[in-house]
Amino acid sequence: MTVTAELCEKIVASAYDDLTPEAIAAARRLVLDGLSITLAGTEEEAMQILGEHYRGFGASGAATAIGFGFRTAPTLAAALNGAAMHVLDFEPMWTPSNHALSTTLPAILALAETGDVSGREVITALVKGIEIQGWIRHAGHLYENGSIRFHPPALVGPMGSAVAAGHVLGLTAPQLAYALGMASSRCGGMAANIGTMTKSTHCGNAASAGLECAMLASHGFDANPEPFEAFNGYGRMMFGETFEPRDLLNFGAPWRIVSPGYAVKMFPSQFGTHFAITAGMALKPQVADPSKIKAVTLTTPVMPYVNRPHPDTGLAGKFSLQYTFANGLLRGGAKIDTFTDEEVVRPDMVALLDKITMNMSREIPARFDKMWLEAEIEMEDGTKLHTRCNGPKGIWGTPPISEADHLVKVRDCLSRRLSADKAEALIALALRVDTLDNAGVREMIALAA
User: Fold this and answer.
1) First-to-last CA distance in the chain?
2) Helix or strand or coil: residue 162?
3) 3-class DSSP state for residue 1?
4) Nearest CA to 180 among 138, 116, 143, 230?
5) Apex 193 CA angle, 191 and 199, nearest 5
6) How far is 45 from 51, CA to CA, in rounded Å?
7) Virtual CA dihedral for 88, 94, 98, 103, nearest 10 degrees?
8) In this structure, are residues 277 and 319 in contact, taking their beta carbons and an 8 Å threshold?
9) How are beta strands 70-72 and 262-263 bridged, if at all?
């Protein structure tokens, strides 16, 4: 039996009863986080353009375009909702680095509106779709920033979506192998588009592509059933000689959704910038007058794509260690409204950015679970201030974000599109999603429609 065949047998055999209570609880929180950031994301300019674009297709179907109030085909809804779920860069982070939620949950929700899918199956599909993405990233043995050729969710997301959708559709192991073979031809996204509107579509396209592959496989469409071990297949072409297919057979309990788990984002920006924000917040009480700062030095890992001294748009600011540090110091944190075109050019912000120098050190691991960031401020009177951030609140190896803190984020996101009573109704349903029948799942989605 090939590795892919053995893996698919293992995936298909995994059911709700195989999930641990911890995995179920972690998945509930992800459903709630995903729906809330999707709704908030629909206000972004990129989503307004995409929403009108997809509405213009005129496609009929039962799947909801969340926040836009129209229905369309499942694959189109997954693409739009996946982009909205990611556009704020507010979804949880995984290790090795990936965006595993926006690439799977939208496909599952689209299918839940087209068939009799219970909350249990939503949870099971989500856990399985996330699990395979984590093990593919692990099997590649390329962990540091810049070590892989493609943006991670575009690289592994279609595979996760295919597995999640395959569970909902009840694919057999051979059918799932075909779905993965097809999905392997849909993978890849240019990291050069990080910091642009296009980045959000990497996740939406991944959710849509994997869903389509699973749907085609359910109708008998075939592909190379050995994508992971084929000489010119996915593993070798995407990762090179470091890819170890047999690592994929670790799929299963205790489940990667629990161990190593995920880091809930409390700031809507690239995860590395959370180190900068946290460092700025730590120094803020010591700086009575920011205008008296003479110079700032940030010592960071080698991460060129977040070295943006003067971001010219709010979107670019999400990928600027300098801008996010400055917000931590000047504003005491970062929120959705931090990343607007108006905020990046405020006089006090520009003045501070002019004083920041970046020192990217190869001595600091360029991976989120091992990196750190140091900040040193020199004041005009000669005083020097220093801090080192080993990670934002809730990072792996520290206590997770509490439910109370998470609900602050969730309610802020939902309040941008929903009334308080509808927001609370959606929260209540999402927090017991595994107890819902299909009517309950549809009601949850309808509240976000």
Assistant:
1) 45
2) helix
3) coil
4) 230
5) 95
6) 10
7) -70
8) no
9) unpaired
**Bridge partner list, 379:** 293
Within a 10 A sphere around the Cβ of 364, how many other Cβ atoms?
18
What residues have CB less than 8 Å from 13, skipping those under 6 apart? none
The number of beta carbons lying within 10 Å of the beta carbon of residue 195 is: 21
Q: Which residues contact 1 (CB under 8 A, 6 or more apart)?
A: 9
Q: Which domains does the chain have, with CATH numbers?
A: 3-263+419-448 (1.10.4100.10), 271-389 (3.30.1330.120)
- From first to last of its 449 residues, the chain has per-residue pLDDT tens of 899 999 999 999 999 999 999 999 999 999 999 999 999 999 999 999 999 999 998 777 899 999 998 999 999 999 999 999 999 999 999 999 999 999 999 999 999 999 999 999 999 999 999 999 999 999 999 999 888 999 999 999 999 999 999 999 999 999 999 999 999 999 999 999 999 999 999 999 999 999 999 999 999 999 999 999 999 999 999 999 999 999 999 999 999 999 999 999 999 999 999 999 999 999 999 999 999 999 999 999 999 999 999 999 999 999 999 999 999 999 999 999 999 999 999 999 999 999 999 999 999 999 999 999 999 999 999 999 999 999 999 999 999 999 999 999 999 999 999 999 999 999 999 999 999 999 999 999 999 98
8 A C-beta contact, residue 76 and residue 61: yes
Amino acid at 267: F
User: How far, in Å, are 45, 257, 344, 422 from residue 314 at the CA level?
Assistant: 11, 31, 6, 30
Closest C-alpha to 363, from 314, 411, 302:
302
Cα distance between residue 260 and residue 398, in whole Å: 11
Q: Record the pTM.
A: 0.97
Site of tokens 């080698």: 302
Alpha helices in 416-449 (DSSP H): 420-430, 438-448
Element at 295 (helix H, strand E): strand 293-300
Report phi then psi at 211, rounded to 5.
-60, -45
Peptide bond before residue 254 is cis, with ω within 30 degrees of 0: yes
Contact between 54 and 97 (Cβ < 8 Å): no
Total Cβ atoms within 10 A of residue 387: 16
Give the tokens for residue 202: 């990497």
State how far the Cα of 428 lies from the Cα of 57, in Å rounded to an integer. Answer: 34
Task: Tell me the CB-side half-sphere exposure of residue 289, using CA atoms within 13 A.
Answer: 7
Given a contact cutoff of 8 angstroms between Cβ atoms, the answer to whether 431 and 22 are in contact is: no
